[in-house]
Specification:
This protein is an alpha/beta fold. The chain has 9 helices and 16 strands. Helix 8 packs across helix 9 (319-326).
Length: 332
Amino acid sequence: MKRKIGVLSLGGTISMREASSGGIVPTLSGEELLEQFGVADPCLEVSVLSLRSLASAQLKVTDLLELAAKARELAPDVDGIVVTQGTDTIEETAFALDLWGPCDVPVVVTGAMRHPDAPGSDGAANFRDSIMAVSCESLVGLGAVVVMDGELHAARYVTKRHTATVRAFGSSPSGILGWVKEGSVDVLVDGLRPQLSSFALPCPRSHLPEVAVLKSWVGDDGRLASKLPEMGYAGVVVEGMGGGHVHPRAAESLEALCREMPVVISTRVVGSHVLRNTYGFIGSEIDLHRRGVMLGGWLTTGKLHLLMTAVLGTTPPSDYDFRQALQPFGGG
């Protein structure tokens, strides 16, 4: 019996071609990707649905919600699901599928660093590797997986580390899940999918909260943070320096902000984590935690933004709920 694979296409570099106005833009539909790249295994039956034709920087959280809903709808009728999209936000899309997508079939997100007409284009290999990966039952239960350059990355760990090279992705702090090689899939570790079931409900589109992201900088006086309540935001992720640190004046603003909305601190240090109890100066992780700021653990800023959106969109907005959601990721 043939194994059935569903492909959901969102656009991205893997679907792009040169435009007459200059540069590359999304052009190929999911059906055209399948026609161009092909699937060699006669034991696989692949169906395609084009949901969007966008650069991934153009995607919204509501697009990811619709994608996750479509994946859940598709799951009972297929043995695996592949999502193709741009690499700019591939880690956020994969994490969104961890939060809101199906749990009982393998889900892989892939894309390309070079468009189909570029020398050394990687799209065809990534597409075929992803089809092979979702046909592998050993991926069931690992959550959403990103497949790029022959490597398998868990959605909760994957980060983009380069803007141009085909070897652009890594996984921290765990390392990769495995490889696709020589016509087979090798899973090196049994990933432990964080227990998110109490939060993994679709957010109603009409009630989706707005969560802000602020980047800390040298000398930040906190004025931007103080303006968030009047701008209608329901929560904020602050990307701090080092182990999760901000300027003392910003710390004061964040303390006041904590009385009005959930505030979580991440770090701009790629592949690392927010500290918990090392530094005690004003604006340090200890100081911020005392002021009511939650610690983001090892999740990246973008993933914390999605997690906060998920919690605020599906539960009463309380600090306890979001602290609980952060715990599987070393935060709280």
